[in-house]
Protein 1
Amino acid sequence: MTESGHDVEGCLACDLNNGRQDLPGGRIYATEHWTVEHCIGPFGVGALIVKPLRHCLHVADLTAEETAELGPLLQRSTSTIEAIVEPDQVYVCLWSHAGWTPGHIHFVLQPSWNKLSESHEKPGPSLQVDMLRSGATPPRDEVESFAKRARQFLAEAPAVTSGA
Ligand SMILES: [Zn+2]
């Protein structure tokens, strides 16, 4: 599973794309080349994953078409999070290096709030480490409810166009 391809069994991102792995909330949105789903990790309700449908291991390997869809999709997905859970910031990050092995790239879009300063020492990656250590995956019913609203929002929100 180090080769890039269209569907690699045993790759968590591909398994979620193709229904071999349980995905609370289901697929929220898809473009021709990308999919949006709720994060299955411990980053709270409202954390979304944006990833290519194709098994792709490096941002540098994205095609021109995949790249063209990415900016608008990240913008629309973060506005969706903002509209539903009203965070003070939405983190957008991509590591895809679990076990020191390049994996199917996936952006994590995570809502964050200033008030988390009361329970966490530092924001950003430090907050993510805290949340990973807690291992607290969000309640399934809340994830499903968020996914339903996000699906509706993304379907109705006008696509960002390149002006003109
Ligand atoms: Zn994959």
Protein 2
Amino acid sequence: MSTETLEKNANHAATAPAYFEAYDVHAYYGESYIVQGVSFNVHEGEILALLGRNGAGKTSMLRTIARMDDPELRSGELRLDHVTLHDKRSHDAAQLGVGLVPETRSIIPGLTVEENIKLAQIAPPMGWSLDRIYDLFPRLGERRKQEGTTLSGGEQQMLAIGRALARDIKLLLLDEPYEGLAPVIVQEIEKTLHYIREQGMTTIIVEQNAVAALKLADRAIILETGKIVFDGSAKEVLDNVDLRHEYLAI
Ligand SMILES: Nc1ncnc2c1ncn2[C@@H]1O[C@H](COP(=O)(O)OP(=O)(O)OP(=O)(O)O)[C@@H](O)[C@H]1O
Ligand SMILES: [Mg+2]
């Protein structure tokens, strides 16, 4: 490593301590060993792209951070803003500021857009107000009385993100937010994620559309069968054809 790089890293470390940290995380579905000793950091206000081929363990890693019951975290440490998550259950992790937007979007059937958001705001501390969420996603405001499950795919993704922001979160976990969406809707959501980042949100984004995720992200890690094979800047991945071919098939 060049002296310049070392200095840059040292400066980065001095000014931006790890805000979220995963250290030597091992997680299983039953006897299936999926997350195999994963360590990485995310700094405050940073967007990290978590990439890798199908089945690499990306969703499993997000679910582990959110402390879902499966996969089961058997060893390792997770810390958000210096508070341990590895010894918590999912509702405590949510209370401590982990906001997972799952691939399924998890819109609650039978409830309107507004009721879906309000439900997220039941337990304090409150995050974004309804007005602020509708400012960010005017389509949600227009459809506030519509049943959430009848929204288009893109609108459901907006609702899922809006619901996460409605709670006072410190770490936003996005699992394939662009999946199945037309390019014009992807652009619309990209714009809102840029805005959310400007508000200082720390984010981990998982995406099959690696180029789109890398355009948004500051840093990237690549998972391959549950292990990290790359940890560096998003630009390094975009510029490195071999890396992209080998691990991302792009
Ligand atoms: N509930 C489960 N029980 C058993 N194995 C599972 C379960 N969920 C996922 N797996 C396995 O764990 C591995 C990692 O899956 P995961 O969903 O984390 O991958 P991924 O990187 O998110 O893939 P994709 O890009 O397809 O979404 C896969 O081999 C998958 O079959
Ligand atoms: Mg997945």
Protein 3
Amino acid sequence: MQEQRQRTRILIVYYSRFGAVRSLAEHVAEGARRVPDIETEMLEVEDLPVEALRPGERAADMQMRRAMVVGKLGSADALIVGAPAYFGSMASPVKRLFEDCATASNPPATDRSRPWHHYLFHDKPGGAFTASATPHGGNEQALHSILTLMMHLGMVVVTPGQQMPILENDAAPYGATAITGAMGNRIPTETELESARALGQRVAEVATWLAWGRTEWEKRHGAIGDHVASVTKST
Ligand SMILES: Cc1cc2nc3c(=O)[nH]c(=O)nc-3n(C[C@H](O)[C@H](O)[C@H](O)COP(=O)(O)O)c2cc1C
């Protein structure tokens, strides 16, 4: 009898003011679903910080909304994060979301030095995508800013790498990109859309391999959390 495996959940987190990054996000999701047993979910980042009260919202509602966002980020098997390039870096709402959600809102007084929910992100595969007005407008820097955030949180960075034919394919090796032109109205090319699909597919493949490998590892050696705790205690 074939063993039942759980579906691998890919969360695509993105911010988009004019629509280019949203379009890439949809193609990233399409690419991820090329891989068997993958579920994709979208999380569109809002302009307002997660902790800002929305019109008519009470503090308790905001805390529930925040907990749902933190829950989505924490329970996904992999994150693919997209942000427009703003001044050569990821647009600030995306960084802000991670700052708000990776930081415990009520750090216990006894542990003021570690108010970070970094464990939510540890070991998760992650990939990045961006859109910029011009080819030299900082799109690779914007990808790097997202990948640096992921490295800092202990995520497993997944990049497309160089794509064939190496000297003719203008896709970035660090993530998916689209150039939207000075007026922001350039339609993404098929190469750009395919680079978004390929990113989704690659992150989904690596996430599946890691999840399956982890299941096998735990069968032999017990829960990874217990193993980490025992190693940490003995060092
Ligand atoms: C505040 C701001 C800063 C920007 N900075 C850059 C930049 O540094 N380099 C660039 O090429 N484009 C820059 N752009 C253009 C956006 O990166 C581009 O329009 C992108 O497609 C927006 O993505 P969206 O359509 O998903 O909102 C900037 C746009 C704004 C609003």
